[in-house]
Design brief:
The protein folds into 2 domains: 136 residues, SH3 type barrels (Roll), CATH 2.30.30; 30 residues, no CATH class. The protein is 29% helix and 30% strand. The strands form 2 sheets. Strands 1-10-2-6-7-9-8 form a 7-stranded antiparallel β-sheet. A 3-stranded antiparallel β-sheet has the order 4-3-5. The longest helix is centred in the C-terminal third of the chain and has 16 residues. The protein is globular. The termini are far apart.
Length: 212
């Protein structure tokens, strides 16, 4: 079972529940297809926002895997539930795209998990439906009506166990309260050059063009 539990279908929705088939809406704010009695037309979101009236649109939606981020007390009574998308680990953490050795995996899963607060690692589990290493992507959130999700608890394939859920709860807190900053801002030119070799494409600050 690794870090997962498999609750009964009647169990209330909890933080850490993993659902397969949550809808993710794909929409471009510059090209929105509005459908009304006059047919279909393409507008921008500015056109819709300026009218301040609800409209019907045609949009693309795809099913994704997601995990409940809403706390248990809110998940039992709030109108909506927030989930974070789950994707292949190699797509969330680019450092592991070419990773193959167990030693490298241990380094990424333990050390980088402390450094990078944007994801939460999920190990493979055939019973749950994870054939590969997966990760929660805190950058991608989804919102669905609570009552609807309760009616579709058949989409819930498992949940984090108590140990993993405590860690997950803390990681969510760390992500949303973190202070984002460019860690290379205090480097001089030579130090920045070294940093940039390890992190190609890092934009320098103006004062890093020359030593000061």
């Amino acid at each position: 079972m690794m870090i997962y539990d498999f609750p009964d279908s009647s169990s209330p929705i909890n933080q850490g529940d993993i659902f397969f088939g949550i809808p993710r809406l794909e929409i471009s704010l510059n090209n929105i297809i509005v459908a009304d009695e006059d047919g279909e037309r393409v507008v921008t979101w500015n056109d819709i926002a300026s009218s301040n009236e609800p409209v019907s649109i045609i949009a693309s939606v795809r099913p994704v895997i997601a995990i409940v981020a809403t706390q248990n007390c809110d998940a039992s009574r709030s109108r909506d539930i927030t989930l974070c998308e789950i994707s292949l680990f190699k797509d969330v953490e680019l450092k592991c795209k070419e990773t193959s050795s167990s030693k490298s995996w241990v380094n990424i899963i333990t050390q980088h998990a402390r450094i990078n607060q944007k994801w939460f690692y999920l190990p493979p589990n055939e019973e749950l439906g994870f054939s590969e290493k997966m990760a929660v992507d805190f950058m991608v959130t989804l919102r669905v009506p609570r009552a609807d999700l309760e009616d579709m608890r058949n989409l819930r394939k498992g949940r984090l166990n108590s140990i993993a859920d405590e860690h997950f709860r803390e990681r969510i807190s760390e992500f949303f309260r973190r202070y984002p900053y460019d860690e290379w801002y205090s480097l001089n030119q030579s130090e920045f050059d070294i940093y940039n070799r390890e992190h190609p494409g890092t934009p320098p600050f103006p004062y890093q063009a020359t030593d000061v």
